[in-house]
């Protein structure tokens, strides 16, 4: 990235600042704001605060935006490189709800690829979302587990998320 002064590049329109930051100039603008020391990565927490001030968090499912952001930090935990940020923004702008939940599903369901076990879902809710299980967790899980095998497919997981309101 070329060195940029705080006054350049010119900022994009507010909604484009993060949600449409796929062009190089838009990414430059975000990095000038959030990486003034030109380290090559930005803190996830600062970026999350930035996007929630500019409304694009709504383009990713709001309650999963922070969790999904964390999944893109592959180079350095808690920080996003330009390419990681571009991939996140692409998912938010172009990905479906299934694409977004699919990332969470893959991350949480490591024991059996393509399935999410009951205990993995409990860990997801308690550890990643930092929520206490709702009293009706078991009933909702059983309702969504169509073949009653004790684990959810992606389609069943998406159904669960809609009912459980994570």
Index terms:
Recoverin, domain 1, single chain, 166 residues, two-stranded antiparallel sheet, mainly alpha, disordered N terminus, elongated
Write up what this structure looks like:
With about 170 residues, the chain is mainly alpha-helical. Helix content is about 50%, strand content about 5%. It has helices at about 25-35, 45-55, 65-70, 80-95, 95-110, 120-130, 135-145, 155-165; strands at about 40-45, 80, 115, 150. Helix 7 (about 135-145) packs antiparallel against helix 8 (about 155-165).
Summarize, please.
With 166 residues, the chain is mainly α. It has helices at residues 24-34, 44-53, 65-71, 82-94, 97-108, 118-128, 137-144, 154-164; strands at residues 41-43, 79-81, 116-117, 151-152.
